[in-house]
């Protein structure tokens, strides 16, 4: 029986999480398969490192607000900075949602999803940016990206943002543990998210609530399925 309720789904609790040997916060059912995946990658010369794992509602709300207010840069598909102060309404939300989830609706709340890089492919002083270029054919993490695309499934993982499908940008670094995440997504809904946001208002609240159903189908349920 997998622990799941509204607080787990929306990042308002940590009781579904454990700390693994590397000090990474993960869903209790993900720590072991993730260790197996890392060991197999290591044998192929890839040092899987975690840029981000669990993120709370509060942390996601901080990121969201900073992007909404122009205090954190917002980028487009090509890595160009978006003039966020010139946008309003739904267009402003969509600019942010390309790379940042709505608070309450990040897969990182679940402890099943991680952003990864290969520490063996760069120097210690390397400044990780999480851009398509870094994970593309000319970037340092192309080996990791192709390894994950080939092997992640053997360990129960998949890449929900492997390709751009009109919602979240391609994020070849974002890995998800399918057996738990699929159950969580199945239990998630626009109504559940709406209730969460009404209780925990975020920047742009009225526009978010106005378009919530269509944002949900474009950015939350719209993932690359396991093939
Ligand atoms: Zn991610």
Please, could you describe this protein's structure?
The chain is 38% helix and 10% strand. With 227 residues, the protein is an alpha+beta fold. Strand 1 and strand 2 (25-27) form a beta hairpin. The longest helix has 13 residues, at 31-43. The radius of gyration is 17 Å and the shape is globular. Zinc ion binds at residues 52, 108, 113, 115, 171, 174. Residues 52, 108, 113, 115, 171, 174 line the site of zinc ion.
Going across the biggest sheet, name each strand in turn: 3-4-6-5
Shape: globular
Under CATH, the topology can be stated as Muramoyl-pentapeptide Carboxypeptidase, domain 2
Q: Ligands bound here?
A: zinc ion
The computed structural class is alpha+beta
CATH architectural name = 2-Layer Sandwich
SSE topology string? HEEHEHHEHHEEHHHH
Distance between the termini: 25 Å
User: pLDDT average, as an integer?
Assistant: 96
- Report the radius of gyration as a whole number of Å: 17 Å
Strand content: 5-15%
CATH class: Alpha Beta
Helix content: 25-40%
Spans of at least 5 consecutive residues with low confidence? none
Count of beta strands: 6
Described by strand count, sense and barrel closure, the largest sheet is:
4 strands, antiparallel
User: How many alpha or pi helices?
Assistant: 10
Number of separate structural domains: 1
